[in-house]
Amino acid sequence: MVQPFANPAGTSKTHNSQQGGRLLSGHVKLVPNERSGMPLQEWINEIPNTGLIRYRMRFNKEVVFVTSPKGLSEVLVQKSYEFVKPAKLRLGLGRILGVGLIVAEGSQHKKQRKLLMPAFLHRHIKDLYPIFWDKSVALARVLSENISPSQDKPAKVFDVADWLARATLDILGSAGLGEEFDTLHHPDNEICSAYRNVFEQKPPRGTLAMGAFFVREAFISIFGISRKDSISMATKTLTDVARRLIARKRSNRQVEGSKDQHDQGRDIISVMLASDSFTDRMLENHLLTFLAAGHETTATSMTWALYALCLYPNVQQQLRDEVRKALPQHIDQAHAAEPMKAELLDSLPYLHAVCNEVFRIYPPAGLTRRVAVQNTSILGQFIPAGTEIVISPRAVNVSKDLWGPDAATFNPDRWMRPSQANTGGGLTNFSFMTFLHGPRSCIGQGFARGEFASLLAALVGTFEMSLAQDPDIVIETGLTSRPKGGLLVQFRKI
Ligand code: HEM
C-alpha cells in the first residue's frame, strides 16, 4: 500500500511530548516542522491522551494541542471569542490584508461575518459554477497548447504549482470580483507578481529571527516609519488594484442603477455592493482578504490532489471514467457545451469522494493557533490567559480514534459507503477539520469546493498524469503547506 506521503519529511520520531524538554527551547527540537502539523499527526495517535496534549516551545512557553471533538468544539464554537489569533499572525496578515475578516476579532468580526455571509450562501455560489468550469477548461486548454503535437504520444512535464496558482487567481478574479485577470496567459501580470512576492516571504524562524521581527515591527509602529520592503510594495500594488476595481464597480452600478442585482453581476463583490452595507475601505479589505485567502489555499490543495492522483493511478482512472462518462460534451467540446450546472458537477459521487479525501489527507492549513484572552478552561482543564492553543487539521483528520485503524490511508472509497457521503465514516463532524468549524470556519468553503471539483474534473478528464520527480517530498510551510520547490507532473493528452 502506497502511503499518502511517500516520505513525510520533517516527521519527528518523538513519542512522549512531556519528556526531553530543554531549559530555554522546550520541545522545539522535537517539532521541527510544527507549522505543517506533521509531527502532531503522529502524536495524536501515539501519545495516550484524553483530548489535550501539552508541549513547550521557546522559553518554555506552554502550548496546548487539542485532539478531541469535544475540546475542539469548546475552542471553536462554545468559547470561540475567548480564543483569538496570536498577535504575530494578525500583525503579519494585517499588513497584507488590512483588517478584513481573517484579522478581525470579537464584535468587529461578528459584525463583518454577518454582513458577508449572504454573499457566500449556496444560492449565490451555485451561480458561479459556470465560471469555475470555464476557467478550469481554460487551464486544460493552455496546458494542451503547450504540449507539442508533433510527438507520437504528446506529453509534457509541467511544474503544476505555479499554473494552479494562476488558474485559481483567475477564478477569484472572475467569480469573486467580476474581473478578468487572465494570468494564465499573462504570468507577469501585476497581481500575479505581487502575490509571488507575498507568498515567497518566509515567516521568521528561530528565536533570534523572531525577536528581531518583533523589535522591528515595534519600531515601525511606534515611530510611524514608512516601509519600502517587497511586501509593502506588493501590498501597495494590490491595494491600488482593489481601489480601481471597486471604483469601476460602483460607477457601473450607478450607470445601470435600474437593473436588478442579478443583472449587475453574480460575483461576490457585486453581491456585497448590492447590499449597500459596505464602505469602500471595508470592500478593499475584504477584497484583499478573499484574494489572498482564496487562491493560494485552493491552488495548494490542487497541487496535492495531482500528487495523490499520481501516487494512486487506480483512483485517477476511476475518476476519469466517471468524469468522461458524465460530462462528455463539457470535456470535449467546451465551446459548444451548455454552461456547467452546480447540480451536475455536485452529482458525481466519486468526484465528491476524491475531493473530500484530498481535503482530509492533505489540508493546506495543517495547523492554526489561538491564544486564550482570559483565564478559561477546555475539557474542564484550567487554561490561564495567554496560553497558546494549537488546532491541527492535519492531525485530527487522521486520528485513529475518530477514523478507525486505516485513518492515515488515502482511500476515497470511505466516502462512497452507504450513508457516508458526507462524513466519510468520521465519528463526528469535528473529525474533518480542513475548513475548521464554528464562527471562524472558512467562509469560502462552498466556493473552494466548487472550483476544486471543476479544476480536478477538467484536468483528469483531459490528461493522464504521472509524477516526473521523486515521490519523496518535503513539505514547505509558509501561509500554506505545499510541496517544497513545486511539483513536476507529466501531462499526456488523452
Ligand atoms: C481549499 C481551499 C480552502 C481551505 C482549505 C481553506 C481553509 C480555511 C481555514 C482552515 C480557515 C480558518 C483559519 C483560522 O481561523 O485559523 C479559513 C478561513 C477563511 N477563509 Fe478559507 N480556505 C479555502 C478557500 C477559501 C476561499 C476560496 C475563500 C474566499 C473566496 C476563503 C476565505 C476565507 C476567509 C475570509 C476566512 C476567514 C473566516 C473568518 O475568520 O471568519 N477561503 N479558511
UniProtKB/TrEMBL annotation:
Give the Gene Ontology MF terms in alphabetical order: heme binding; iron ion binding; monooxygenase activity; oxidoreductase activity, acting on paired donors, with incorporation or reduction of molecular oxygen
Biological process terms in GO annotation: mycotoxin biosynthetic process
Query: Does Cell inner membrane appear among the keywords?
Result: no
Domain of life, source organism: Eukaryota
Annotated segments matching region Disordered: 1-22
Q: Which residues bind heme?
A: 442
Which cofactor is recorded for it? heme
What ranges does the record list as Polar residues composition bias?
9-20
Q: Which CDD domains match?
A: CYP_FUM15-like
Tell me which UniProt keywords the record has, alphabetically.
Heme, Iron, Metal-binding
What PANTHER family does the entry give? Answer: CYTOCHROME P450 (PTHR24305), P450, PUTATIVE (EUROFUNG)-RELATED (PTHR24305:SF227)
Identify this protein by name: Cytochrome P450
Q: What is the species of this protein?
A: Penicillium diatomitis
